[in-house]
Amino acid sequence: MESNHQWPTWEVFTQKKQGAPHEHAGSVHAPDGEIALLNARDVYSRRQEGVNIWVVPSDAIIASSPEDAGAFFDPANDKMYRSPNFFKTADGLKQI
Amino acid sequence: MRRLVVTIILAKLIRPVIPMDINVKMDDLSEKENAFNDSIQAGKVIEPKDWMPEKYRKQLLRMMSQHAHSEVVGMLPEGNWISRAPSLARKAILIAKVQDEAGHGLYIYSAAETLGMDRSEMIDQLLSGKAKYSSIFNYPTLTWADIGAIGWLVDGAAIVNQTVLAKCSYGPYSRAMLRICREENFHNKQGYQILAYLMRGTQEQKDMAQDAMNRWWWPALMMFGPSDKESPNSADLLKWKVKLFTNDDLRQRFIDRTVEQAQAIGLKIPDDKLKWNEETRHYDFGEINWDEFFQVINGNGPCNKLRLKQRNDAHANGQWVRDAAKAYAAKKKVN
User: Fold this and answer.
1) The domain containing residue A53 runs over which residues?
2) With an 8 Å Cβ cutoff, is B130 touching chain A?
């Protein structure tokens, strides 16, 4: 059997409605971007789940590694003052 | 492969490279496995790049590829009735349903590929007959009422299974299940409606619906698999939260919710022992014919050979489409 379905994979991102962020939906196989878009529409948006689709070659995505998550995200660990909850102010105020 | 390379390069930038698993001592490995088990108990969702025991990966791959194959083979018994659907509306609905099954197969193949096996390899295993798929699709669709029974009973049983799988510990599988469950309810309802309409029709139509019920009820119950006492993989799968309930629990859940639906349209469930049990708050039911189940699983069902041939033919008949797409992509690259 020849390997006819060894087209590259494309990651699919769909936008649910205008103004919303694109979200990862899954992947498709396709010989090029144009067909990847058509496949993505047929696989991930048969019920108007999207108003816009991105397809990205899977190997173009560079992801951080879960094992290194601790060290990688470390710079944010000791800066709790970036959250408004860090600041205790007067009680009983409606705002601030 | 490229994805893996990227990860390794990235890891090198951040800290010295640690030896691969091959060099890790057994103690370290079981320690890793314990930590993995604990994180699952604590409700962690596993993602493709997380460390996982080889057995977890293998079991998931086995389950997910079988599940994807079932969606794909599931198109065959229903496709059998597209050209003979009784109205244009029914035909359009059935085409949409069959197209959904193709989509479901693709979601799950896509999720399974994150475990490191190419879809082409999974498909080759299906076409060569090496891989298993749900036994239910080795039964024939003899009348139009069978299309109703498949949507209502077969997809109904699948919904019970998949609703639970949507909460399983592997992220890509669980997300594919969420998407599938949303669409599966349409399958379930359209099937039930087909039978409901037949049950309001002539005596002949009613008989046809009841006949479909009689033939699909027991195979639908078998879809949940053998009792857990005889299901070799259950313990591991439960521990890893790939399964959250036993086969018997899910079967019971399906029966409890389906009996009323049958009664509401006047269909009789072909089981003399079926009875509401006030004490357990569940329906008691008769003995399942597990001999039949194992016969069908082992290739001796009514349509095993036919399904494999149909699937291989469909694949071969699609060759020109794949060739054309490839040629078109190549031509555009040159221009």
Assistant:
1) 9-86
2) no
Chain pair A-B, CB pairs under 8 angstroms: 86
Residue A49: inside a domain, yes or no?
yes
Q: What's the average model confidence in pLDDT over B163-176? A: 96
The H or E element containing residue B83 is: none
Of B11, B96, B110, the CB nearest to A65: B11
> Is pLDDT above 90 for A76?
no
- Average confidence score pLDDT of chain B: 91
Which one of A27, A34, A45 makes the best mutation probe of the B interface by having the most chain B beta carbons within 10 Å? Answer: A27
pLDDT at B232 over 80: no
Count of domains in chain A?
Answer: 1
In a domain, A32, yes or no: yes
Mean pLDDT of B263-282: 97
For A9, which residue in chain B has the nearest alpha carbon?
Answer: B110
- B305 CB near a chain A CB, below 8 Å? no
Q: Which of B29-38, B65-74, B223-232, B251-260 has the lowest mean pLDDT?
A: B223-232
On the question of pLDDT at B169 being above 70, the answer is yes
Token digits of residue B266: 């006047």
* 3 state SS of B24: coil
Using DSSP's 3-state secondary structure scheme, residue A14 falls into: strand
With H, G, I as helix, E, B as strand and everything else as coil, classify residue B298.
helix
Cα-Cα end-to-end distance for chain B: 29
DSSP class of B46: B
A67 touches B at CB < 8 Å: yes
User: Looking at the domain assignment, is residue A93 inside a domain?
Assistant: no
What tens digit of pLDDT does each residue of A1-24 get? 444 457 999 999 999 999 999 999
Please indicate, yes or no, if residue A76 is contained in any of the structural domains.
Answer: yes
User: What ipTM does this complex have?
Assistant: 0.82
B147 has a chain A CB within 8 A of its CB: no
Say whether residue B15 is in contact with chain A using an 8 A CB cutoff: yes
Q: Do the Cβ atoms of B119 and A5 come within 8 Å?
A: yes
Rounded to whole angstroms, how far apart are CA atoms B282 and B165? 22
In sequence order, the 6+-apart residues with CB closer than 8 A to the CB of B153 are B191, B213, B216, B217, B220, B258
Partners of B87 in beta bridges: none
Q: Which long-range contacts (C-beta less than 8 Å, at least 24 apart) are formed by A23-26?
A: A25/A50, A26/B107, A26/B110, A26/B111, A26/B172, A26/B175, A26/B176
CATH number of the domain at A28, please.
Answer: 3.10.20.520
pLDDT value at position B25? 53
Q: Distance (Å, rounded) from C-alpha A5 to C-alpha B12?
A: 33
